[in-house]
Write a structure and sequence with these properties.
The complex is a heterodimer. Chain A is mainly alpha-helical. Helices cover 59% and strands 0% of the residues of chain A. Chain A has one domain: Ammonium transporter fold, CATH 1.10.3430. Chain A is built from 14 helices and no strands. The longest helix of chain A has 24 residues. The C terminus of chain A is likely disordered. Chain B starts with 24 loop residues before the first strand and ends with a helix. Chain B contains 14 helices and 17 strands. The radius of gyration of chain B is 21 Å and the shape is globular. At the A-B interface, helix 1 of A face helix 8, strand 15, strand 16, helix 9 and helix 13 of B.
Chain lengths: 317, 438
């Protein structure tokens, strides 16, 4: 008679149930959230941009696969994190950059910034941004040339810095020169709202980043409360993409609540300094990787006080 | 200052619908009964019977082994077959009294009392003698809890009716079927504390219980009902104190330090039986449930009964379960074998056809911070787990690892499926063990 009772059952420590979200599902959500910006970039800049996106993503995935194989490690590409890195890097490339830029950047992002430090969860710097900064320093002329069929000349931020006027509406929609994925504030925000709704990210880092950046501009730009200027600064360059997709990267932002606010404010101030006083009109990438370096320190000083360890305030009466 | 909720926590699938609407069923056990001498926190009980003795239902078979300890009573009549180590739900072998049940259920005579005519000392003595321990799971002897150093400083007696563990409905059935025993029991406990208010703290996913209890306590100026937000672990002692009073305690404090005493539903009902009817603790309600059980429901069980018989009573199993848990899915113990006895602290028997833990391999931590957001103790579980894995005892303690209540929220939410609770628990055990030795 089989009463199902004579077997040995599985044992494990509590809890015996698990929430449904997994790492790969979260990464997939990020990929989906990046699609509006990607599609807009391809639509805006043409076929070469699409090719560049595909090549870069293929490179990052392949680089991780080959690295895992060579090091005889478990193949980790199925967690989609390499896809996220590739996509983010591609969106940070100029639309007419040669394809080999995507290959070099993708390989650098995965192998040097991510895998050499131990792979997913161990890198101290956002791989896509690390690679972008590497490319910016090594291939400056390619990485800062935003000429393409649709737009010639400077990016809107560079134009503002040079004292020229810009069309703010075009900037919000994204009809300007820039990297593939950074130009459309609207497309990026659609993706960001999706991530917020799916609870993949929250507003702690982006809001403190953007607000402190605006406050910095109000104090030091010398333009006072100039709405058009402020909006063009928010919509221009990599700020939106950086604030919602790269500063929020789990691995390289502080894990503590308070730390995330500190991190966001630090990024806002650094971006303000780089944009106002630096030689380039941009500064988001450098601000974020600098912030990444401070994460362990920020976490140390913002560790939450355990429940019941605060001085209990005596109730009145 | 009632907040009715707390920071952190999770919302797991609650599974209560399986068993919640069926009335409790009483089981008359047959065959061998096993009474482990350690069913509580503190010193093991000391047997007062020997092999071959005939015992009656309600007869004391082991007496308390110290102040923090509790006596044990036979729950059937029969002959003592022996005293030997037997496996219990935690997997440990515990010295146990084995009674061969003769099926006659011959009972000793009980002395009922009029609670109003007893003084405080007599009430506590009755509770102590009845062998009552915290039946929510911890098993702390209730008479110790009810004897704080300064009883006049106790301001709240909180009846923990939250039942926040998924699948469990035993407290719910008790509140639906015998709410008067709960209220009477609470009134008896309130007699011990002159300055205390009674709070029946129920999660708001049980609106029917809130309604019944509110109606019953309308004319009780000292008792109120608090409808707490439904969230796991609302029924954890520190969380329920915070939700009902706004006061926080840490691992080095007792509820009494915050002017509170917290007791679970079944414990309070046991107090009622002990004081009013003079009956020792012999029964408890056990939820037998899970998707592998044919007839999931609550049972009125005599302590000492074998888990296998409980499953039989619940209509047997539909299929071979992957996992069997004694207690709820968040904090219960997984059993490799069902041949263990029901104890004073066994709240449920959960049979799952699918084990979500072994179904997914842990992957690297991505630092998402969900464990931090879910931790009701405001810790950083993923960092504590790493410290534990690196065997960094000092760092673990410095980062407040000892404040963990092992509720399981961190492992539950982790998208990388890391065994955070397990890592933290084992380090805690280690540190506690060393402290005990020192």
């Amino acid at each position: 008679m089989d009463n199902h009772l004579d077997t040995m059952f599985r044992v494990s420590s509590n809890p015996h149930v698990r929430a449904k979200d997994t790492t790969s599902r979260i990464m997939l959500y990020v990929v989906i959230a990046l699609l509006p910006a990607t599609l807009f970039g391809v639509f805006n800049f043409g076929f070469h941009a699409l090719l560049l996106v595909i090549i870069t993503v293929l490179t990052t995935v392949l680089a991780e696969y080959i690295y895992d194989r060579c090091m005889k490690k478990k193949i980790t590409v199925t967690d989609f994190s390499a896809v996220v890195t590739g996509l983010l890097l591609a969106l940070n490339l100029p639309p007419k950059a040669p394809l080999w830029i995507g290959v070099i950047g993708g390989a650098f992002a995965i192998i040097v910034v991510k895998m050499l430090f131990g792979g997913l969860g161990q890198n101290f710097m956002n791989p896509a941004l690390g690679a972008r900064c590497f490319l910016l320093i090594s291939f400056t002329s390619i990485m800062t040339n935003f000429d393409c069929d649709a737009y010639t000349g400077a990016t809107p931020l560079a134009a503002i810095k040079a004292g020229e006027g810009v069309n703010v509406l075009d900037m919000v929609i994204g009809r300007t020169a820039g990297t593939i994925g950074e130009t459309s504030m609207i497309a990026i925000l659609i993706g960001a709202v999706f991530l917020l709704v799916m609870k993949v990210i929250d507003l702690k880092v982006p809001a403190s980043y953007l607000i402190s950046f605006v406050v910095f501009l109000l104090l030091f730009s010398g333009r006072g409360f100039d709405v058009e200027y402020l909006v063009s600064q928010l919509a221009g360059g990599g700020l939106m993409l950086g604030a919602f997709f790269m500063a929020t990267d789990y691995v390289t932002r502080p894990i503590t609540d308070k730390g995330q606010y500190v991190f966001g404010v630090f990024l806002g101030i650094m971006t303000g300094i780089f944009r106002l006083f630096g030689p380039s009109a941009e500064g988001v990438s450098y601000a974020i990787i600098l912030g990444n370096l401070l994460v362990p320190l920020i976490e140390n000083v913002t560790r939450p006080t355990a429940f019941g360890k605060k001085k209990v305030k005596k109730e009145a009466g | 200052m009632a907040k009715l909720t707390f920071g952190g926590g999770v919302h797991p699938y609650d599974g209560k619908a399986l068993s919640k609407d069926k009335p409790m069923k009483t089981i008359i056990p047959t065959g061998e009964m096993v009474y482990p001498l350690s069913q509580h926190i503190g010193a093991p009980a000391v047997p007062v019977v020997k092999k071959g003795d005939r015992v009656l239902t309600g007869q004391k078979i082991a007496e308390a082994g110290g102040f923090v300890s509790a006596p044990i009573y036979a729950t059937v009549s029969g002959t003592v077959k022996g005293i030997e180590p037997r496996r219990v739900v935690t997997g440990d072998l515990i010295n146990s009294i084995i009674v061969d049940n003769d099926g006659l259920l011959e009972e000793v005579a009980y002395t009922p009392h009029e609670p109003d005519k007893l003084d405080k000392k007599e009430i506590i003595e009755l509770i102590k003698e009845a062998g009552i321990v915290g039946m929510g799971g911890a098993g702390f002897p209730t008479h110790v809890k009810l004897s704080p150093k300064e009883p006049e400083k106790i301001e709240y007696v909180i009846a923990n009716c939250a039942e926040c563990e998924p699948y469990l409905t035993s407290d719910y059935r008790r509140m639906i079927e015998e709410p008067e025993k709960l209220v009477e029991g609470l009134k008896i406990i309130l007699r011990l504390f002159d300055n205390a208010q009674g709070i029946l703290a129920v999660e708001d996913n049980k609106p029917d219980c809130v309604k019944i209890l509110t109606e019953m306590t309308q004319n009780e100026p000292k008792i109120s009902v608090a409808a707490l937000k439904t969230k796991y672990p609302q029924g954890a002692e520190r969380q329920i104190i915070y939700a009902t009073t706004g006061r926080e305690i840490n691992s080095k404090m007792l509820p009494a330090d915050a002017g509170c005493v917290v007791d679970n539903v079944d414990t309070i009902v046991a107090v009622y039986h002990a004081v009013k009817e003079g009956k020792p603790l012999m029964n408890r309600i056990v939820t037998v449930t899970g998707d592998a059980v044919n007839d999931p429901r609550n049972f009125y069980v005599r302590i000492g009964m074998n888990y296998k018989d409980l499953i039989e009573e619940a209509g047997g199993l539909k299929c071979t379960p992957e996992k069997i848990v004694s207690g709820g899915p968040m904090m219960g113990f997984a059993l490799f074998d069902l041949n263990v006895p029901t104890t004073k602290t066994a709240s449920a028997l959960l049979c799952l056809t699918h084990d979500e833990v072994s179904a997914m391999e842990p992957t690297p931590c991505i630092n998402c911070g969900r464990c931090v957001a879910a931790c009701p103790s405001r810790l950083v579980p993923t960092r504590l787990a790493v410290l534990s894995e690196h065997y960094d005892e000092e760092g673990f303690v410095a980062n407040d690892g000892m404040e963990c209540v092992e509720c399981g929220c961190c492992s539950y939410v982790c998208p990388a499926k890391r065994h955070l609770t397990q890592a933290i628990k084992s380090m805690r055990k280690n540190v506690l063990g060393k402290r005990k030795k020192a």
